[in-house]
User: Fold these one by one.
Assistant:
Number 1:
Amino acid sequence: MKVGDISVSDFAGLLASQGVTIQTGPFVFRLTSHIPSIAAPVWRLYRDFPLIEPDLVDFHLVLRPAGRFARFTGRCEVVIDARRILSVFKSPAALPHLEWALNWWIYNYAHQFFIVHAAVVERDGKAILLCGPPGSGKSTLCAALVARGWRLLSDEVALVCPDTLKIFATARPISLKNESIEVIERFAPSAVFGPRALETHKGIVAHVAPPEQSVRHINADAHPCWILFPSYAADAATRLTPIPKARAFLRAASDAFNYQILGAQGFRTLAAMIDRCSCFELAYADLTEALKVIEGLGQQAHRA
Amino acid sequence: MRSAGHHSQILLKALADPASIRGLSLGEWDLLLRQARTAKVLARIAILAADMGLIGGFPEKVRESLEAARKIFAYRQRILRWEVGRIQAALHGLESPILLLKGAAYELAGLPPARGRIASDVDIMIPESALPSVEAALLRHGWEHSLLEPYDQRYFRDWMHELPPLVHRDRDGIVDVHHAILPRTSRLKPDAAKLWSSAVALGDSGLFVLSPADMVLHSAAHAFHDGEIALALRDLVDIHDLLLHFCRQPDFWPNLAPRAATLDLSRPLYYALRYAALMLGTPVPEDVAAEVRRRAPGGLVRAAMDRLVPGVLTPDHPDEPPPGQSRATLLLYIRSHWLKMPPALLTVHLCRKALFRHFPREGV
């Protein structure tokens, strides 16, 4: 059964009582929410994901009002196993905090993967990793590529299997911030958006629902072929610059969440990835031009 | 006595008898993984399961969780050993001997509690006279004070048994520099000179650890005297492991209770042996148990502790904390402070803490 197979009100009822258990690729989480306003957006953004009832889940998330005076302060919190994670927030920011909490869990516990802070899209089994710090434009490029038909794996984490280098997908909603929300609204008018959270510590945040195709083919093969380090600047000329592998290695290592935790395994995994990838820096201001350059990479590979 | 409840039995059983996790259902695993993470003992369960060759036979999700816990542990173990080396290098050339406490001691002495135990900081002890030179050397080598409020500084320097925690500016490693094992203001006053006189050198590393009996007593004091009992399950597991390990030395058990009396730690030892035996099934020889029982508190306190401690020590079902448990936690929290400080100081300290909980300072 999928989330979208039950009605929004049934979904809201489950969320507030026993919780709903959703599978996003390799992860299964149970979500209980005592913040009624998130039921409809979560239902909309996750409508194509399997709704399952296993005995064992990876983690149990609870969204709830925080503290004894929550009725007056309007403050909410995310709790995993009776412990608050992240900082407290006002209920309009609940959806971004749900997404950050899911990410938080992955960064802290999913060490069966080599985890790189990167957006990942795939076509013909070949994946592009868009690495870089917040603000570099990786989510924006990711949303645009997905609108052009690339399969979404994640706008946030590349989950690399250390043994096979296969990249696993969670295909969760793409998180856009501030100006990039309107950019994507213009670029992809048919994209399904969640509500805008106006006041978060990252500014305005809105989520784009993953295409049904990306969720349906969530387990399809994807192996890393290109690693791009985008940098957005308002007046930049679009420029794709190949970079030496050693430099790409160091940059990707610093963008990895568990490079140190995995130790030698992390080193070997990243080295093998870099070996098989072409690595570039991509400076851009104009989205359409940037996409042309990226899609050009894919076609070159096709001809070769 | 209030039983610790069926939910926590799975965790206690997994800690006391690691082989018992063989037959768990998926639903029981779900609960055990959550409780073990909360109590910070998941890596221990994972390491012991791996040593017994069990992990391969577990369901995939369980295997993933346990493997992840093992990776985190291996990483933290590397960091711990590295930090100890850095501290030693920073203090090289000073007259002061360095004695490792708790996690760092277990790890470098190769003792059983080190298995799967994740230490958040490095605890060392030095003679009190060496405090200024050691602090200066650490500050010179990149460690910094993280607590800059004058109250916090005074709290540690005047009342505690350690310097305010020092954090390395590049590596985030924390070192707690102790000159004793209980606060200056504590009701019980184990003499640090006596600890030093029986300290054990770690090969030719230049490092020392406490003697076997003192190691157990320190852990007991931390769990049942100055620490927060709600966090003491891991201390109890340490004690369990140490007792099972040291009991093979013929003079260990006969020496333990007399040593506790010498160090003014009979009461914490009583609690440690009582709750280790009760909750983890730690074998304690009857004559030692009887000797220690003579130092037990009066009937009323004993009954109160027996009601409060087991419930607080073990995480209950993560979704439904039983009513009364948070009150028990609060009572034991106040008790630990009561033992740590005289009443006037305690009043000021707790008021201050309560105040800052409601009106947090910037960046706290």
Number 2:
Amino acid sequence: MKAANLLRHRDSALALIVLGLIVAIGLRAPVFVTPESLIGVLTDTSFLFMLTLAQMVVILTRGIDLSVAANLALVGMICALVSRAQPELAIPTIIVMGIALGALLGAINGALVAYVGIPPIVMTLGTLSIYRGATFLIAHGAWLTSKDMSPAFLAFPKLSVLGVPILIVIAVLVSLGFWALLGHTRLGRGLYAVGGNPVAARYCGIELGSQQFFVHTLAGAVSGLCGYLWVSRYGIAYTEIAQGYELTIIAACVIGGVSIAGGVGSVFGALLGALFLGVVVNALPVINVSPFWQTLISGAVILAAVVVNARSEKRGGKLILHKARLLASGGTRP
Amino acid sequence: MSAINLAPATQDVGVAAPILSLSGVSKSFPGVRALHNVSLTLRPGEVTALIGENGAGKSTLVKILTGIYQPDEGEILVSGKPLKCAGPRDAWAAGIAAIHQETVMFDELSVAENIFMGHMPLTLGGRVDWFKMRARARHMLKRLEADFDAGALLKTLGVAQKHLVEIARALSHDANIIIMDEPTSALSAREIGDLFVIIEQLKKHNCAILFISHKFDEIFQVADHWTCLRDGEEVGAGAIADVTQADLVRLMVGRAIGQVYPKRDVQLGPVVLETDDISNATEFDGVSFKLHAGEIIGLYGLVGAGRSEAMQGLFGLSELTRGSVKIEGKAVNIRSPDDAIRAGLAYLPEDRQTQGAVLPFGIRANMTLASLGAHARNGLISYAKELATTRKFGARLSVKAANWEQALSQLSGGNQQKVVIGKWLASNPRILILDEPTKGIDIGSKAAVHEFMGELASEGLAILLVTSELPEAMGMADTILVMHEGKIVKRFARSEATAEAIVSAAIVDENAGASR
């Protein structure tokens, strides 16, 4: 129970910090803590919530996906182009298309990581550039603005369900999905196992490759969903959309207690990490602090989070495949 | 004995003064007496073979000589002066260097850098004197008649050549006592020939060599003297010319198998597992056996004989290139551990911490990892079922923990092992593969493991026991299969097994002459 307590303890500490931050900013600028303003913060942060969870499942398997933001931009651009060409297309169709396209882009990462053996960081560094480049090429470098999008296309993210903005609703549904996946399915347990000890997982019949393929595809699907929502919410699509956002996402994971070494991380923690960054980003302009402070603060918090994690995590076992090494060294005589 | 070319002209007539002598060296670990009253003498220009079974204390002795362990008792003299060896650096300073079976060096650096790592010659300004370093490395390689350049990257060399670099590194420290710990285990026949040439070179340079090997043909070819350890005690020493292989085998194993093995008499059931000629590309070849319910088959052999590899192949961890497997009479095609678990197999790996335990997980999640299917419906895991399983096996194995959610990283090694064993029992296997289940644990825990193994067998579980410990194989197994270089070379029924016969079979390659 100690470790679980520690994690919970860590989560509640982070929750208190976020709360303290909101109160402190509220004292300086009461307008920040009005319900409308706070709902605005949550709405703005909903992309970060979803993408942080998507990134977390990749990191759980000891991987990383640097291409999520580029995937988002490419899918967003395709959605906008499709909408311009077919303005009468139903929104659910566009959403499904966005998810499917994103999943396909993610599956490309997953297939090459899992079955060709390219390290995830290298693979997704490559597709990060490729997807950005493709975004530029398919639009011939043009910006698509709200004039190019149908009214229905633009209206969807502004809908609300029982007074709750639809972006928040979607983020909640996605979070519930991740919570069910990670906490209650064989698949989710396997992701933690593979990250916690790939060799032990393999002996138990859980193969790393299929898990890698799955997490990259899932991360792609979430990115694709966010691609449509992002472009329609801001009413603009261009090559540099969400550029560098992958780093914010990874930062949210780390702040939220997801171990870069794999195998450790919770949905609740990751959401708190994202919320923390969301509050910082939204609050600083309100109290007239330069946005450059935001990157500085999140950097400092990442380091603090890593120190906390390092103290709470015990060093895991080292993987030594004795025979593989012996064979490899035995076969190299020229 | 060829004393003529051993004793250099500068030495007095007769036997050279010992360069290293150990007397009465003892070393204990909690619960284990690793070495007791061991003596050993090395003389310049001579090769002494250190022989003994797995676990006889050879590694401990090497670690004492290289400063990794401190002896509890006894005296070590180097050239007549007592050795105070507080760490590896002191061993270097005393002229002792060890060459291990797996070289630990820097692949991406040059040979010269590898030789001088840690003591590179410097210029007056404190920078590395590359010119001097390369020149000295070249000189040293020339002395050893090496066929590669000091500037070559280490990764471009073969294993034997890497050994040569290690030897050069030892010589760069002016080492004159060189320990070779199974140096040939990763070498091809030709490379072994190369190594023997190097050993001759070292003898000419008046180095004393301690040669550790399981291979008697090599020992008789290269050694001048021998010392035999058994259960941490020195049981004999002498000149190679005066002994035969049979004498040495007898000395290595000559002990009574005690009554500590609670093997129960189990009525064997039907055949549950039958392998026919299973082989993979590189590690094992033509392994066939029949395993009955309630039976324990012991797989004995030297480290590297292919026992674990054969079991891993059976378990779907490596690809079989030939052969077939039947479980309860039905042919099965096991291509992954998942298939194996479905077919009723369980594999308890040798290194339980790195291959078995998922440390960030709690006990519950570890316990059910190999049987998630049985704890889930439609892919959804049932927490209540998991908890029931965890309670059952946690109690049966008396796992000591604060509660079932405690992370494995916080449990003791022994309790981690119990959880890993519980995990495999929870998968409800019919065939259990145990890979060195008592390696590195104390006598009390060993007895508990043996007791438990007997209990499982009496419940009808079929067990494949991979072991390097002869008493364990003889005490626990109904049938002993001896493997050598990837093949089963001998089969013994429990009643006909003798220690000498088993060890001979494991050590001697009967086809040695024909195959090379």
